[in-house]
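ingest -> fold -> write
write: protein_1
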Amino acid sequence: MIESASSESVEMYLKTVAELGGEHGPVPIGRVAERMGVSPVSANEMMKRLGEQRLIQHQMYKGVSLTGDGRRLANSVIRRQRLWECFLVDHLKLDWARVHDLACDLEHATATEVTEALAQYLGNPSRCPHGNPIPDRDGEVGQENDLTLSRLKVGQSGRIRAIVPESSDLLAYLAERGLIPGQSLTVLEAAPLKGPLTLRVGDSQEEPQVALGLALAELVQIDRVEGKSD
């Protein structure tokens, strides 16, 4: 069943649903269409096809979620992509933000034996350069906390764990401001009416301040939090 569905288009849809949280609950089809840059009609047609192949489940008025087979196929695509990202950054020294799109081109043309040889060559890394976990060869990935930068209060500090979902424009924007995995930060101010957060990036009081809107802060996952709110 899974093999018959493994076209590039199907893989992209399943990966997108997974990246938007479809492993844990329903994702609106409109969000899938928006992220993929396709029309809602096209997305709905593909979801019907994936439902017939038992790769997704569609809940009326709520959206779609992945079945067990759909999750394993989606995570196998994600595994290929993130392993290629590791190779492109660590061994070819390509730009951290650009490798996301480059790896997307490679993931669909990579056979299983090549994927596993690549994993072994890289030392079986557990995370991609953007901090996201790499599923294992069985398509499984461990549970992680869902704390995001947008939920920090004034006075709280944290360390960036991952950027999700990834896109080259987003990664480049954040990298220019020093907001990359492993970087520490502190919330100095939160503007009212859902305004931007003012952040100190780094541990020193002399480090530069950065303003980041809540929509972007929602995409920055935090590994740990220290300090307390005012």
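write: protein_2
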Amino acid sequence: MAIKLSKKSSERKNYLIDMDGVLVHGRTPIPGADKFIERLQSANVNYLVLTNNPLYTPGDLAYRLNLAGLNIPSERIFTSAMATARFLMAQKPGATAFVIGESGLTSVLHASGFVITDVDPDYVVLGETHSYNLEHITRAIRLVAAGAHFFATNPDPSGPGEGGLVPACGAMAALIEKATGVSPFFVGKPNPLMMRMALNYLDVHSEDTIMVGDRMDTDIVGGVQAGLETILVLSGVTRREDVRRFPYQPSLIVESVAEIEP
């Protein structure tokens, strides 16, 4: 049965929704996720899928979600790569960057007017890639040590891969930080900056928006810090017994998005 928040919260018409563990597990849809998206669309609710995954473009992710039975258009997807590009463009338009990442990151940086180069760049931008290259990591270390500003799309240390865990952006960032002594600036969740950018992208206010996620340490804390109502779903990483360990709490806990009535 679908669940609503309190009267005050149920008046909110906008949703930021994490992807992995909330809508899908890899390529497999969470049971009831398709009906949840249909309810949002039928009610003309403004929503955005908010993901730390910087590997793919919104079009790629929309195609992947469509294959899983979730009819979500690309303009309803906002990635940590998009947030990173927007932040860097606001900092220094037309800058140069050495980039480690896939098309989800490089394409949005190019579209934002950045020049990608390994010669004296303004920034080193670390995303995720299907195959980390030691030569590229070494180049990034030397550029950061020489003074390039160090940014990373997201702090996730690992992610799911074929056969088990694979290193993600946070793990590679830790390697570069250890070698240089320079900490990266992470743009993605739990940085509330990404939440704010998503709100601006939708042109909505935090007081009228709910964050739905499966991780207390990224989705929920980011939502709390950005002033959003939060719904924790138990279909992903966080278990119900884990919640009490955190000093901040979600507005509501449900088994999955199948229980949420917008």
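write: annotation protein_2
The chain has nine helices and 15 strands.
Confidence is low (pLDDT under 50) at residues 6-10.
pipeline exit 0
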